[in-house]
Design brief:
The complex is a heterodimer of chains A (329) and B (694). With 329 residues, chain A is of the alpha+beta class. Among the domains of chain A are: 48 residues, Uridine Diphospho-n-acetylenolpyruvylglucosamine Reductase, domain 2, CATH 3.30.43.10; 100 residues, CO dehydrogenase flavoprotein, C-terminal domain (Enolase-like, domain 1). Helix content of chain A is 28%, strand content 20%. Chain A is built from twelve helices and twelve strands. Chain A has a five-stranded antiparallel β-sheet. In chain A, strands 9-10-11-12 form a four-stranded antiparallel β-sheet. A three-stranded parallel β-sheet of chain A has the order 1-3-2, with helices on one face. The longest helix of chain A has 17 residues. Chain A starts with a strand and ends with a helix. The relative contact order of chain A is 0.13. The mean pLDDT of chain A is 97. Chain B has 694 residues and is α+β, with helices and mostly antiparallel strands. Chain B has three domains: 112 residues, Aldehyde oxidase/xanthine dehydrogenase, molybdopterin binding domain (Aldehyde Oxidoreductase, domain 4), CATH 3.30.365; 188 residues, Alpha-Beta Complex (Aldehyde Oxidoreductase, domain 3), CATH 3.90.1170.50; 343 residues, 2-Layer Sandwich (Aldehyde Oxidoreductase, domain 4), CATH 3.30.365.10. In chain B, the strands form seven sheets. Chain B has a seven-stranded mixed β-sheet, with helices on both faces. Chain B has a five-stranded mixed β-sheet with strand order 9-17-16-15-10, sandwiched between helices. A five-stranded mixed β-sheet of chain B has the order 18-19-24-25-28, with helices on both faces. In chain B, 60% of the residues are buried. Classes of the chains: A alpha+beta (329), B alpha+beta (694). Chains A and B meet through helix 12 of A and helix 3 of B. Bound molecules: flavin-adenine dinucleotide and iron/sulfur cluster. The site of flavin-adenine dinucleotide has 29 residues of chain A, from strand 2, helix 6, helix 7 and strand 8. Iron/sulfur cluster binds next to loops of chain A.
Chain lengths: 329, 694
């Protein structure tokens, strides 16, 4: 572990300014991902800018009926918030399906979004990895690939994004607020994370030094009928094999609107737009869900070890939609 | 018959003597021993699986502020020759597995040591890695013997003919993957070299085992080494012998006289340096008549060993003993690979072997249209088929019947895939367990009287199992005094010689020595001993294995739920019934047996060290990647035992309980998943992909 400086930023501007003082500086949230990476030698920052105590730890009601979640809000607090549990149950469930109680007590909203892939080769500096060391090759494509991507992968990288929370947020059309040296901007959660393409070293569209300050949830009344289903062989404390977050607006026996997001299958949380389109204005029915799931997975490609994820995601999507519509309608 | 003790304290659920110290954090584990100004060691490990180290450049590491020592084969102390080539580190330039120790850095802080270790530049001459285990390799060989000193192969009667003429046959291959012990406490060693004397505070399952292996290797006289181990946070066999990291810490300490050198392996390092269970490929053939009576059992095993050092797991050995079958064949073949050295992991042999045999028995029950409990009862035997000797006590049938009764087996509909609760398919399964009862020669205990109390001394070790408590209870009954009058001293190689905590032999071996010493003490000093009266005695040699086959047995029952949509497997209920001789302490025994069952559940559903054959390393080498059952996986798990005292083995009447709990547990769960789903999975772990509808 390399020696490093540690600075606690007092406000957002100071954080951004401190970050500008060194090209290898990193923001520090709960540290549950970054500090592990420092121990493993993946990250060797010379400066940590602690943003976990910035005044960004509140969950506020927005005038339009939505919610603003500060970047420093801890995962446990977010999951327990009454407004989140009532208005956005998919988010609360996604959070509680992730990691462990101890980790959620430390992990922050900003850090959770920017946690890095759990690809074992990425985490082992002795094996080639394009994401860690561009151009060195991808060890997973011909190696152990059980946990890897079935959609949107490239020849350079087949990693998946590990966050459960981000999948929940994607089904809720969240918007990420970012401050950087160039000012403030907003990015939809769908645009935040990238597909790997030729540049797997870039997980997101964030520019160097940009700080996530908040995540906004739009007022989506039907998100009250939303849920998160995570499939994993171990009953807790395991990353998703696949997961599905969904929200459904049922109106007079038909699907008026629907959001479906999937985890564990791509370099970014995956919005199932094709499936959504096929469902809108239809009468919910398992055969319909099956067709929609198949359409979404039309371009899925299996690696050596992860072919099971294709039927697994299909079944999980069908079961989740069924639970949201048929049994509760 | 041995002269069996009358139980007063034995059989009572005495609270762990070390419970308060542990829950308050006051129990010193090896790494916790306070040292003045300690130094910290970080190993340098090979990043190739096969070849030669051409050059090690430590310049950058040496220049780092805070580094006290870099150690490589160029400046390491010379070790004595040893048969255990795993221990022969930093003596040569050969690399035989990825992760092998090739150097060390010692520094003022663990962080500096770790950074400096990363700065060591190593160049290699690399050869192609061969880490692929398969049953069709042409270079499989027959080891001279297998672990435990058992014969490699056995062949009795005419197996092929008996199989061919059997009315019902099962012929299948069952596999278990590479698994790692992963005790909660990592392997830790603190080494202090002072005045030409080495002290090791070591996380090890046997202080004398460590002493005997390390003193000659380090060219020390026996009195120049002391190994101290008051508490161990689990070992499951991986601490059953010292491994190379102890040698590394000792060598570093010998280069830094007067300064304690501390080493705690990281979880990742534990996946290469401290042993693991070999993957096993079991070809099992059973032949039976229509009533399910076995005519032939054939169990042929292929598994791996390391190029550096041979370890041959005795996987087919239980198939020699569990069931009566006139025709039997067992064999073990090994592939020598460029992989870390395999070693003991809880119930080596029985654990993977009984998975194979007991899933095959389930298949046989179905083929014979027979209840699987009844099938096992029909194949019970009063004598050990292999030796012809009677068992000291065998009540497999009692375990099966009692378990069936309590588990509610009677109304079981044998047809698979018949029970559904929502998306969940429900099923139940059974399997037998067995484990040999052993007591080891070479145990001595010392008893001293003073101020109304008895000090009982023996170099035993408590690896979390309850030795501190159970041994005190045995001593109390042997001395016929209240357990509160006993001061037990264990975990120190300066105490009388004791054998390793392994093979479920601890209590039988150490307890036998304690009873011998207590009886000698009373014979010598009477019931009213003089102040500071003292006696030492050795566990007498026993010829019991020439007259009897000492084995424990058990029956494991499991209920599972398998999600018909996602293939997820959950285990709501497990019951184990064991015939294991006398239970010294029901509280710690229950914990040991259910602990074994939970480990079996973990093996059934999760545990799998994924080998990347290109580089010969375990890819998922941390606890986020290597899954062990979490609390949420463990629901209603219970263990009970038949009320018995084994009168042939030792004065306590015990047979050992450390390992039998894991044996058969995975098979019971696997059989239950078949009953739930109708899908027969013959490999472990039972992950969702096996049960998915594609
Ligand atoms: C054993 C284990 C199991 C886990 N299981 C799960 C699981 O099942 N599901 C799941 O979703 N997660 C899981 N996690 C991951 C966990 O959710 C993340 O580690 C956590 O959310 C990261 O949050 P943090 O605040 O600690 O981030 P940090 O480690 O502090 O930071 C992560 C990254 O985000 C950057 N960063 C932090 N805050 C900001 C900000 N405001 N703006 C810009 N950049 C920022 C940091 O520079 C760093 O690059 C697991 C983790 C572990 C260790
Ligand atoms: S999948 Fe991506 S992260 Fe994993 S080894 Fe390949 S490039 Fe690296």
């Amino acid at each position: 572990m390399r020696p490093f400086d540690y600075r606690r930023a007092g406000d957002v501007d100071e954080a951004i300014a401190l970050m500008g003082t060194s090209p290898t500086a990193r923001y520090l949230g709960g540290g549950t991902n970054l500090v592990d990476h420092m121990r493993l030698g993946l990250e060797t920052p010379d400066l940590l800018v602690d943003v976990s105590r910035l005044p960004l730890a509140d969950i506020e009601d927005l005038p339009d009926g939505g919610l603003r979640i500060g970047a420093a809000v801890r995962n446990s607090d977010l999951a327990a918030d009454r407004r989140v549990r009532e208005r956005y149950p998919a988010l609360s469930r996604a959070l509680l399906a992730g990691a462990s109680g101890q980790l959620r007590n430390l992990a922050t909203t900003g850090g959770n979004l920017l946690q890095r892939t759990r690809c074992p080769y990425f985490q082992d500096v002795t094996t080639p990895c394009n994401k860690r060391e561009p151009g060195s090759g991808c060890s997973a494509i011909e190696g152990h690939s059980r946990n890897h991507a079935i959609l949107g992968a490239s020849d350079a990288c087949v990693a998946v994004h590990p966050s459960d929370m981000a999948v929940g947020l994607l089904a809720l059309d969240a918007v990420v607020r970012v401050h950087g040296p160039g000012g403030e901007r907003t990015i939809t959660i769908d645009d935040l994370h990238r597909l790997p393409g030729e540049h797997p070293e870039r997980d997101t569209v964030l520019e160097p030094g940009e700080l996530i300050t908040a995540v906004d949830l739009p007022p989506t009344p039907f998100a009250r009928r939303s849920t998160y289903r995570k499939v994993r062989e171990r009953a807790s404390f395991a990353f998703a094999l696949v997961s599905v977050a969904a929200a459904v607006d049922l109106h007079e026996g038909r699907i008026a609107d629907v959001r479906i997001a999937c985890g564990g299958i791509a370099h970014k949380p995956w919005r199932a737009r094709r499936a959504e389109e096929m469902l809108v204005s239809e009468v919910p029915d398992e055969a319909l869900f099956e067709r929609a799931a198949r359409a979404e997975l039309d371009e899925a490609r299996a690696l050596r070890d992860n072919g099971f994820k294709i039927p697994l995601l299909r079944h999980t999507m069908v079961a989740t939609l069924r639970d949201l519509t048929l049994e509760t309608s | 018959m041995t002269d069996t003790l009358t139980a007063h304290s034995m059989g009572t659920p005495l609270v762990r003597q070390d419970a308060m110290a542990k829950v308050t954090g006051m129990a010193p584990y090896a790494y916790d021993h306070r040292q003045d100004d300690p130094a910290y060691l970080h190993p340098v490990q090979a990043t190739i699986a096969r070849g030669r180290v051409v050059q090690i450049d430590t310049t950058a590491a040496d220049e780092l502020d805070g580094v006290l020592l870099t150690l490589t084969r160029h400046n390491a102390p010379r070790l004595a020759e040893s048969e255990d080539t795993e221990m022969h580190i930093l003596q040569h330039d050969e690399v035989a597995f990825r992760g092998q120790l090739i150097g060390a850095v010692v520094a003022r802080t663990p962080e500096i040591a770790r950074e400096a270790a990363a700065l060591v530049r190593v160049t290699y001459e690399e050869e192609a890695t061969d880490a692929r285990l398969s049953a069709d390799r042409e270079d499989l060989y027959r080891p001279e013997q297998v672990n435990g000193g058992f014969e490699t192969d056995t062949d009795t009667g005419g197996v092929d003919a008996a199989l061919a003429s059997s009315a019902v046959q099962v012929d299948q291959t069952y596999t278990t993957p590479m698994e790692h012990n992963n005790p909660m406490e990592p392997h830790t060693t603190v080494a202090l070299w002072q005045d030409e004397h080495l002290t090791l505070w070591d996380s090890i399952q046997g202080v004398h085992a460590a002493h005997t292996a390390l003193a000659p290797l380090l060219r020390l006289e026996p009195e120049q080494l002391r190994v101290i181990t008051p508490f161990v946070g689990g070992g499951f066999g991986s601490k059953g012998k010292p491994h190379s990291h102890e040698v590394l810490a000792a060598m570093a300490a010998m280069r830094l006289p007067g300064r304690a050198v501390k080493l705690a392996l990281t979880r990742q390092q534990m996946f290469t340096l401290v042993g693991y269970r070999t993957p096993t490929i079991n070809h099992v053939r059973l032949g039976a008549d229509r009533d399910g009576r076995l005519q032939a059992i054939s169990h042929e095993v292929v598994e791996q060993t390391a190029r550096l050092y041979e370890f041959a797991e005795q996987t087919a050995v239980p198939s020699r003993t569990v069931y009566a079958a006139p025709h039997r064949r067992t064999s073990h073949r090994l592939a020598t690979l460029d992989v870390p050295v395999p070693f003991w992991m809880r119930a080596p042999g029985e654990c993977p072997g009984m998975h194979a045999l007991e899933v095959a028995m389930d298949e046989l029950a179905i083929a014979c249209d027979l209840d699987p409990v009844e099938l096992r009862v029909r194949n019970d035997t009063a004598t050990d088929p292999e030796t012809g000797l009677p068992f000291t006590h065998r009540d497999l049938v009692g375990c099966l019947r009692e378990g069936a009764d309590r588990f509610g087996w009677a109304d079981r509909d044998p047809r698979p895939r018949q029970r559904r609760e929502g998306d969940w398919l429900v099923g139940t399964g059974v399997a037998a367990s067995t484990y040999p009862a052993m007591s080891m020669p070479g145990n001595t205990a010392r008893i001293r009287y003073g101020l109304g109390r008895y000090t009982v001394e023996i170099g035993a070790v408590d690896i979390g199992t309850g030795t501190w408590t159970a041994l005190a209870q045995i001593a109390a009954d042997a001395l016929e005094c209240p357990v509160g009058h006993i001061d037990l001293r264990i975990g120190d190689s300066d105490l009388p010689q004791a054998t390793v905590e392994g093979g479920s032999s601890g209590i039988a071996s150490w307890g036998g020595a304690v009873v011998a010493a207590a009886r000698a003490f009373r014979a010598e000093h009477g019931r009213l001993p003089a102040e500071w009266a003292q006696t030492e005695a050795e566990l007498p040699e026993s010829d019991v294995t020439q007259r009897f086959a000492p084995h424990s047995f058990g029956a494991q029952f499991a209920q599972v739920r398998v999600n018909a949509r996602t293939g997820e497997v959950r285990v709501p209920r497990m019951l184990g019934v064991f015939s294991v001789g006398r239970i010294v302490n029901p509280r710690t025994a229950h914990s040991q047996l259910t602990g074994g069952m939970v480990m079996g559940l973990s093996m059934a559903l999760h545990e799998h060290s994924v080998m990347d054959e290109r580089w010969g390393h375990v890819v998922n080498h941390d606890l986020a990647g290597y899954h062990i059952a979490s609390h949420a996986d463990v629901c209603d798990v219970d263990a009970i035992w038949l009320d018995e005292v084994d009168e042939h083995l030792n004065p306590m009447g015990t047979r050992g309980i450390g390992e039998i709990g894991i044996v058969g547990a995975a098979a019971a769960i696997a059989n239950a998943t078949f009953h739930a789903t109708g899908v027969r999975v013959r490999g472990l772990p039972l992950t969702p992909e096996h049960f998915l509808d594609h």
